[in-house]
Amino acid sequence: MSLETAEALAPAARDDVVVRARDVVKTYGGTRALKGVNFDIHRGTVTTLFGENGAGKSTLMKILSGVEQPTSGSIELYGEQVTFASTVDARDRGISIIHQELSLAPNLSVRDNIFMGREIHNATGIDFAEETRQTRALMAELEEQIDPATLVAELRLGQQQIVEIARALSVNARILIMDEPTSALSATEVEVLFKVIHDLTSRGVSIVYISHHLEEALQITDYAVVLRDGAMTASAEVEDIDLEWIVRNMVGENFDLGSPPSDYTFGDVALSIQDVSVADPDNADRFLVDHLSLDVRAGEIVCIYGLMGAGRTELLEAVAGRVPLSGGRVLLKDKDVAKLTIAGRIAAGMGLVPEDRQRDGLVQTMTVGRNMSLASLGSFVKTLLMSPAMERKLVDGAIRDVHVKTSGGGAMIGSLSGGNQQKVVIGKMLSTDPQVILLDEPSRGIDVGAKAEVFGLLAARAREGLGVLYSTSEVGECLSIAHRVVVMRRGRISAEFGSNVAKEQIMAASGESLVS
Predict the structure, then answer these.
(1) pTM higher than the cut 0.70
(2) What's the topology of domain 255-349+434-516?
(3) At the top level of CATH, which class does the domain 6-103+174-251 belong to?
């Protein structure tokens, strides 16, 4: 990788601490997001921030990268007190951030996204040839065969995450902040990213890493810091901690994801997917979902597991009406809904929580309440006018039911943490009173405590008769609340298990290598 060593780029420090944050406070109106946090970053190491959604992790990182300024407190960079007026200011001083929510321009190419705002120039203008060469080198380092001229909109979510990472690496950062960089990556892509992180730290680059994948993060962590409710509750070197230590300091007690609700019998078939196929838009002779059939009964929780490319997302989007069927039928309570629009399927009693909440689940210019009520607007209309009181009642109840941490329905959706935004999307669909809910990677960007709340909520709704069909790429989530685990491979069902399935059986059926 074309990175100079941090020793060559950075001034000499008094010790191995390159950044010291002292007594950092950040307030938003009446909310204290950070409460006097002290935080160090060491040269050539990985410091991992753990904490629930809303704990203050992203806020602290935004301050360190120039996105936000602290209300009070100080930051020292190589022993010198600094204030970053902008992300450009922070970047010029060697600090770069990979945000949890992608900030790419979908209508621009991969190359143009990587060099946006810092184009390479020659005597005649922008040197596109050199930008293309450097983009190819970055993609090769990340082991991704992505053409620099490809539009970002044409990439799947995991590939867009790779482009975001490449853009941050391209600025030769001395301090690189990674906020949930693996949330959309496959296991193979995560392995490559970890190799890159090891290479960077060996060159003296300091990494600040934020992840809700606790066990995964422990593989690369040197120092662990736990935030809770805006304050630092614990810090330690990796040799002195384990998973239980992290969870205990994050949430005050051990959480698990629950177990399958078993205190009732299933009802009739609520959703019947019959011989459904979805064609590859780039190759009409290939099926992303290949003649697949699956039933979900009222009150049953079914988990779909599979690796990237197995067809999980394509199946759920086809059932929900987001992509067209190439063949087959979708029955909701014996009614064929395959020809209905998305709105028609929601009205019939089926809703989808999409994988990419930013692009497909939320309207960023709207409030929490309006996002929450979007799918239910028709129920508030009385004599051609909306009833604000009815909408407010639904919003307040949904915020309470899905445990969204917010000052109220009037808050802007962008003021919420990623996990709380995900809860808003889930709450929006549950507010339509569905018979069946589809969830594509419902825990993406959600911490261990919030994940337990979400899965507990789904289990409670299942007891009331809701049919639940969710997909995941995390084996542990298959072993939680699901009554039945369906494994997909290359667009087909490769195996089906009951709730007593072992992790190794699921992984083997998916074609994944077994790792102890």
Answers:
(1) no
(2) Rossmann fold (3.40.50)
(3) alpha beta
